[in-house]
Amino acid sequence: MPVIAALLLDGVPGHHVTTPALCFGTADRCHPWVSYEVRLCAAPGFRSTGGPSSFGLATPWGLDGLEGLAEADTVLVPGHPERPGGPPPEVVGALRAAAARGCRIGAFGAGTFTLAAAGLLDGRRATTTPGMAAGLARRHPLIAVEPDGEVVADGPFHTAAGVLGGVDLCLRLITLDHGGTVAVETERQLFLDLPADHGEGPDAPVSGATVTGDTLGPTLDWLEARLDRPLTLDDIAAHAGLTVRGLSRRFRAETGLPPLQYLLRVRIQWAQRLLERGDEPVARIAARTGLGTPANLRHHFQRYTGTTPSVYRAAFRSMVDSLTRPEDGPAERG
């Protein structure tokens, strides 16, 4: 099971502490083939989180013996208040050791300053919260600072703004591990609280499931590239080089769904993405997703998500507007 170790320095904002567990835990809960373990690792001197509502936190992991980081596949450094003299030497040593053994390392908000202080970002691209980007560039001129706060990947290092406690960074890492569909579904579950099973049972995989061996992977890619076209069982079976009965057996084994139910699910997922990212009318989305008419789209969409396309679009945009708020700054500094 991949281990995500969040390294907590004193004063880390509370939402920076909870976000990694929330994101990776939601990916776990909603996708049976996804598995993560999130460890909260207290750095030396850690006492409590920062404002606006600070709280104490006892964790079983720390830097003693590097137990919290030695087994980690990914180390995350959330934001924290600026500390005179920079991060503790033990933290610098632990991060350098993690980098030396090839660990993936991410930071958001002022956590980027900690990676920079450890010398890990010299000669690389990185980012932080936009309001702190100029300070990062001034203090660490060997770093090519990108000021917009979008997730930046350079080698094993991934940096981002701290807005929403690093949600964007966590979702990017989930995308790298399990694909965009899993990340999009995780984002929806996080912010819109949609039903996880969509009427198909809690263990039903969705588009993007990881399969191995002699699989339907090429056929699934072919199918998902042709969502706007009428597709029959015979069409799908012909592409897969199987009989219709063999196709149905293979689909159930690899996706948990019959072929046409899988196709419908992928079409609804594509409709969700179009509703989230653009202003196309429902009639156009119905045509692009192969669902034909607005009435047909509304029927299947409501059955799948529990709401209508127009309400879904409004809810998603309201969520984005309400949750995209300025981050606390380098006295948070992150």
Automatic annotation (TrEMBL):
Record keywords: DNA-binding, Transcription, Transcription regulation
Domain HTH araC/xylS-type: 217-315
Family annotation (InterPro entries): AraC_XylS_family_regulators, Class_I_gatase-like, DJ-1/PfpI, Homeodomain-like_sf, HTH_AraC, HTH_AraC-typ_CS
Residue stretches spanning the membrane: none
Lineage, top ranks: Bacteria, Bacillati, Actinomycetota, Actinomycetes, Kitasatosporales
Entry keyword Transcription regulation: yes
Gene3D superfamilies: 3.40.50.880, Homeodomain-like (1.10.10.60)
Matches recorded under Pfam families: DJ-1_PfpI (PF01965), HTH_18 (PF12833)
Superkingdom as given in the UniProt entry: Bacteria
The protein's name in its UniProt record: AraC family transcriptional regulator
Family matches, as SMART domains: HTH_ARAC
